[in-house]
Amino acid sequence: MLTFDKSGKRKTFKRVESLSKDQREVRIIESLNTCRKIGRLLKDKFPNEIMKLTENSIIMHDRKDRRCTNRTLNRYYAYYQNRGQRVCLLERVLVNRKMARTCPEPGCLTSAEHRPRLEGNFAFGDCIAHELSHHNTTGHAKAWKLKYIRMIQEVALLFISGKFYKSVTTEGGESV
Ligand SMILES: [Zn+2]
Ligand SMILES: [Zn+2]
Questions:
Q1: Cα(42) to centroid of ligand 1, in Å?
Q2: CA of 104 to the centre of ligand 1 (A)
Q3: What separation in angstroms does the CA of 138 have from each of 103, 105, 126, 135?
Q4: Structure pTM?
Q5: Residues lining ligand 1 (ion), CB within 5 A?
Q6: Model confidence at 15: pLDDT above 60
Q7: Given 2.40.10, 3.30.2010, 3.40.50, 1.10.3470, which CATH number is that of 31-162?
């Protein structure tokens, strides 16, 4: 919540939400389920361009977790790592579910200013399309960009067609 002093100047920035530890954990699990579902649906569409997806393929970044190797990611939301072929998402992103949209133009990836803010499923859709596109491509060069564009088009179709919402996740993590 934004609060203003009498002159209209912004004073402090308070978090509206304060979640209990349990609520945070539930959110994280739900967010990871959403990310995994998007990953699975993309894998259905592009079976040869995405790594084999297991329950360890899309996880929360944790410095103490040996599966996560990136140590310098304050300004990231998530990263793809070749070792283990994994996508790791930051805890704050899994809780807040807010991200700036990927802009695949050179120089735009690190400046967040002009990128629209996405929230919820759409934020994760963009993020997973971005990260999965790093598989078998180099950096944010042309091959990554072309792959990302194809992936994000599919993500948009999944939402617009309603296919994303029809695909139910069972406990085993399979789509039915
Ligand atoms: Zn841009
Ligand atoms: Zn990237």
A1: 24
A2: 7
A3: 17, 15, 19, 8
A4: 0.84
A5: 103, 105, 108
A6: no
A7: 3.30.2010
